[in-house]
Amino acid sequence: MPSATLPARDAALATLVAVVWGVNFIAIDRGLASAPPLLFVALRFVLVCFPAVFLVPRPAVPWRLVVALGLFMSLGQFALVYVAMHLGMPAGLTPLVLQSQVLLTVLFSSLALRERPTRGQLLGVLVGAAGLAVVAVGRGPHAPLLPLLLVVAAATSWAIGNVIARHARPTSGLSMVVWSGLVVPVPLLALSLLVEGPAAVSAAVTHPDLGALGSAAFTAYLASLLGYGLWNSLLARHPATAVVPFTMLVPVAGIAAAWVALGEVPAATELAGGLLLLAGVAAAALLSRRQAGLRRAANRTAAPVAGAAVGAGTVGASAAVRGAAGQRYAGCSGQGAS
Questions:
Q1: What does the alpha-carbon distance between residue 43 and residue 217 come to, in Å, rounded to a whole number?
Q2: CB-based contact 18:154 (threshold 8 Å)
Q3: Over the stretch 70-106, which tens digit does the pLDDT of each residue have?
Q4: SS3 239
Q5: 102, 220, 235, 303: which could form a disulfide with 165 (CB 3.0–4.6 Å)?
Q6: Number of H helices and number of E strands within the chain?
Q7: Every domain of the chain and the residues it spans
Q8: Which residues, including other chains, have CB under 8 Å from residue 284's CB and lie 6 or more apart?
Q9: What is the DSSP-derived secondary structure letter of residue 182?
Q10: Other CB atoms closer than 10 Å to residue 141's CB: what's the count?
C-alpha cells in the first residue's frame, strides 16, 4: 500500500523538483525573448525525447495512458504556459497561478481515484491556497486577463496529467517523460507554422540564439527529464494528495529567482503569501505524517490485544477438548480422574 505521507527522502526530492521548476520559469522567460512560444515548446521536447527515446525502454503501461499523459501534462500544460508568458504573464506570477493545479488535482484524484485527502493534507492545501490568494491580490492588478486565464487552463491540464500519472503508476518516471513527450513536437511544430508563421519559424531555426538554446536545454534536461522523471516516480509510489502539495513551493522559488535574475522585487504581500505557502506545505507533510504515525501506533497496540483474545480463546478451547477427552477415557476404563 502506498504511504499517505512522504518519507523524508521523497519529501526532499519533491522539494528539489519544486525549486527546479521555480527557476525554470526564468529560463522560459529568457528563451521567449528570441523564439516563438509554440516553436520553443516543440524544441524543448525534441531535446527531451532525442536521443533518450533510443536509450530508455518504453514504459510498461498501456499506450493510451502514455499518449494521454503527453497530451495533458506536456503538450497542453506547456503550450498554454508559454503562450501566456509570451502575451505578458510575468515570470514570477506564472508559477503562482499555475499552482491552482494543487486544488484541482486533489479534487480530480478524489473523484477519479477515490483517494481521500487526510485532514492534515486538507489543512495544508487550504493554508497554501490562502497564501496563493494573498500573493495574487498583491500582483493580480498587474496581470492581463487573457494570459491569466491561459495559465489557469494550463493548471487544469497539469492536474489531469497528475491523475493519469497516478493511475498509470509507471515503474520508471523517466521513461514515462521521454515516451509521452513524443506526443508534443510534431503537433506543436505544425501549429507553430500555422499560427506563428513560416517566416518566424525559419528565422528562429536558421539564426538560433545561444540564450534561447541554453534556456531550452535547461527546460528539457533539468525541468523535464530530471524534474518530471522524479515527479512521475513519486506519483507512482504515493497518493497524489501526498505529493502534489509540494508544488506550492514552486512559486516561492519562482518569485525568488525572478527577484535575483530579473529584478522583480516582491512586495510585502508576496512575501507574506510565500510564508503561508511554506506553512501550507509543512502542514500537509507534517500533520499527515503525524496522523499516519498515530494510525500505526494504534494498529500496533490493537494487534497484541487481538492476539491475546485469540490466544485465550484457543487455550480455553484446548482445555475444554482435553476435559471432554479425559471424561470419555475415565468412563471407558472405570477409573476416576485422580
A1: 9
A2: no
A3: 999 999 999 999 999 999 888 888 888 888 887 788 7
A4: coil
A5: 235
A6: 17, 0
A7: 8-294
A8: 120, 121, 123, 124, 125, 128, 242, 245
A9: G
A10: 7
